[in-house]
Amino acid sequence: MLKKLMTATAMIAVSATAAFAHASLETTEAPVGSAYKAVIRVPHGCEGKPTIAVRVQIPEGVIAAKPMPKPGWTVEKVKGPYEKSYDYHGTPTTEGVKEIVWKGGNLADDEYDEFVFRAFLTDSLPVGKLLHVPVVQECPDGAAERWIEIPAEGQSGDDLEYPAPAIRLLEKKSDH
Amino acid sequence: MPLVLSQRLVRLVGLAALALIGLLAQIAVAWAHASLISTDPRDGAVVAAAPSTYSLTFSEPVSPLSLKLVRPDGASTPLDRFEVKDRTVEIAAPADLAQGTHVLSWRVTSADGHPVGGSVVFSIGAATAVPLSTGEQIDWVVRAGVLSSKLALYLGLFVGIGGAFASRWLLGGVRTGRRAVAAALGVGLLGIFLSLGFQGLDALDERLTRINEFAVWSTAMATSLGRTAAIAIMGFTLAAAALLARGWTSRISSLAALLCVGAALSLSGHVATAEPQWLMRTAVFLHAIAIAYWVGALVPLGLALKRGDPAAAAALRRFSATIPYVVLVLVAAGVVLAVVQVREPGALVGTAYGNVLIVKLLLVAGLFLLAAFNRWHLTVPALAGGATATYRLIRSIAAETVIVLLILTVAACWRFTPPPRTLAAMAARPATEHIHTDRAMALIEVLPGRAGPVDISINILTGEYAALDAKEVTLVLSKPDSGIEPFRRAAVRDDETNWRIDQAALPLPGTWHVRVEILVSDFEKVRLDGEIGIEP
Is the Signal keyword given for this protein (chain A) (predicted)? Predict the structure, then answer.
């Protein structure tokens, strides 16, 4: 048993460092029908090159996205229509930010940074499933790291080289 | 009591550990791999001399699990001597490397414990071009059977049918030589049946013991030899009828038989697949008829001269008056055939087909010398009634016949030598793979479809066959059965739907795993997996 415990501890230690290698989200679970604060962790550049832009695609069903400004970076909000109308605290919403771009900065390969936005997870999202949030890191000379791969049926993010960060969707909080 | 307590405690701790593992499984989604940043030699590089060390630099510290070098011949050498310096793995290279394409196949694990692999493909001197080989096992019994039956068929067509024609048209229907000609027809008939049997065995790659099976014969009939057999049998029948009949009927019949010789041979063989078909088939038709005319005349003429047949002198006169034109046709048609099949002079020496042609041409040159000597030195005195000249002419005709048999034997060898034309086509044949999913489809074409330096083209469409405006297309190649870990090659856009990768190297023949990664938009990537067969 002690052995098992030690293995478990070792695994915690390993996973803590491992999580730095993929672009990922800090909070990996969230209930639908509520606001979500997304913290995108960017662990490294593109094969040695610094990151000069970070782009996030806001998935369908996620509305009212608002980026947190970041010193040294300009924020761009690409707006567009949603596929359908969503109820946002009683207001029907049909369009909004579909992509957030932080650019103009320079994040060296051997440095770490976080990019934050806030959005509302509508209750039309499938509870129990994973919501994938594709992230692209852009580097000089057209290089890019694209964390956009979505596992196919029966696959896990582990099988992919560049998995998109994901959130496990939980039941809507009833006391709200 | 303390014992029970401690057992409970153990169980509790166990549960806690399990719960932790469960929690970790959740986090595991974010697990990561080390990525390769740079290599020396560079992936895809052609280096002048074998490097003494290789190095792989990763995004984080790694420890190698397996490092090996796959050589141009497919042999794999483990690379045991390496040193890890921070994020770089320095590997001592084997000293005894030949020229050609090598694959440094690596598998490492980083802090996350997740193994990752990849390959660095590099060539020393130049990318390997494997020489063409059929690589098949040769069944010599079947091969000898194919060869001798083919020779028997030639004897029947040229000596038999040609002889029947000569005895009807040149010798005016005398009985001399009839038996020899009839025997040749019999040999030819036997030859065509055996040819079919051996052709079937050869086509099915079967042993002689299966010659009694129906499948062997039906397969042979289904090949182009089936048509040749039908026409040849018709020719043999017509020639036999000509030998039995008299007067004009027999002449017409033997002429029809002679035309069958041309038709039979122009319907099969390498020429049946050569372009332009009308030219090639016409050339073979004329070549064969000219041979039958010449070769067919030798036996009846020689025998008639030997027996002092009164018809011999007239026949000899007719023959020597017509033969220059026949030879002209023979040579002209032969030149056309050789030019189309051999393509370039170098192939005469460099290919088996060309070698056979050289031997044949040498024999033909000997035959022409002998024939010229006969015509200009012996024919006139023999016609004048000179006994010595007649005797020497008979001897010389016999020698001509022997050379003709040798030429026919050599020509039969072509059955086993693909002409340079088809070798060139084989070398240029691409390997293709079509992958179709709901999201997208890709047609991958590797040219040539052989191990060595290749150009790859990728045609990309949506799952509904519409144009797919991809931003990037990348091909990931691996060959797990040879221990070659995946390596990536970025494609460049040719036009709306076509992408290509120039000068990639596929170092080994066999089944390669291919994955096409299509970047549809900045945030959407489609992966298509398939397999492609690469010839040696």
Answer: yes
